[in-house]
């Protein structure tokens, strides 16, 4: 699904990613953990094509296609979805209209006709029920006046509607209470299947109690310094990152 080879990336001439190698297969969930400033959100942004970052070396390959020269919207049309840590409020654009536009733009990029209104409404109904969303929510302006939990649930609703090949969740758990975390995680778990993949970026092991990863990777100073299973996340929760920093220095 995704292959990253020796990825280096900078912002304003400051190198942040210093040689990332990562492979994600269809059906897998990978978690990336690391302290503040280690490059986790930068990696998410670079994969999604955010223009603030410059890729200075390496490759990003989605389903055997090199995509690092593509714009963010082109990557989205190819199936990359990024859930933001701080979703933006867009007054005057309803959740429903936003979703209709996003879906039809992706269809247009693939040479397909617009989705018929009846099919769109059916899909909206199905996905909102799946995520236990109040239908009134869909006629509100996108994220305007939403609580933190509502914003995150809305991001997962967008993911459900767009059915991406690779979903990147950038600190989706930040600011969520346990109930909101459970609802968001349940939504992600219901959307997992053998044909898509999920990359979860988080500070905390608690999210991984709900979204069980196949692999956990630790990012330190722009490099993946350790990979393992969920047990690695539990060890980090207990012991922090100092032991890994010492290992990295010794290496």
TrEMBL record:
Residues 2-246 form the ABC transporter domain. The keyword ATP-binding applies. Keywords: ATP-binding, Nucleotide-binding. InterPro entries: AAA+_ATPase, ABC_transporter-like_ATP-bd, FeS-cluster_ATPase_SufC, P-loop_NTPase. CDD domains: ABC_FeS_Assembly. SUPFAM superfamilies: P-loop containing nucleoside triphosphate hydrolases (SSF52540). GO terms for molecular function: ATP binding; ATP hydrolysis activity. PROSITE patterns: ABC_TRANSPORTER_2 (PS50893). Belongs to the ABC transporter superfamily. Ycf16 family. This is Fe-S cluster assembly ATP-binding protein.
């Amino acid at each position: 699904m995704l292959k990253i080879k020796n990825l280096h990336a900078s912002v304003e001439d400051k190198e942040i990613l210093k040689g990332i190698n990562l492979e994600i297969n269809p059906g897998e969930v990978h978690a990336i953990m690391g302290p503040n400033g280690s490059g986790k959100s930068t990696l998410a942004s670079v994969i999604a094509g955010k223009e603030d970052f410059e890729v200075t070396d390496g490759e990003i390959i989605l389903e055997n296609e090199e995509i690092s020269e593509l714009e963010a919207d082109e990557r989205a049309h190819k199936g990359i979805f990024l859930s933001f840590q701080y979703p933006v409020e867009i007054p005057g654009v309803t959740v429903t209209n936003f979703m209709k536009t996003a879906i039809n733009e992706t269809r247009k990029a693939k040479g397909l006709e617009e989705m018929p209104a009846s099919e769109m409404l059916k899909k909206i109904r199905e996905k909102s029920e799946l995520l236990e969303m109040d239908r009134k929510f869909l006629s509100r302006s996108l994220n305007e006046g939403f609580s933190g939990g509502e914003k995150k649930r809305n991001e997962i609703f967008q993911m459900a509607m767009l059915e991406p090949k690779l979903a990147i969740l950038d600190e989706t758990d930040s600011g969520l209470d346990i109930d909101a975390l459970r609802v968001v995680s349940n939504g992600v778990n219901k959307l997992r299947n053998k044909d898509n993949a999920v990359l979860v970026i988080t500070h905390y092991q608690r999210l991984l109690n709900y979204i069980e990863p196949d692999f956990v990777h630790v990012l330190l100073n722009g490099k993946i310094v350790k990979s393992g299973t969920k047990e690695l996340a539990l060890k980090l929760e207990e012991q922090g990152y100092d032991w890994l920093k010492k290992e990295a220095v010794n290496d």
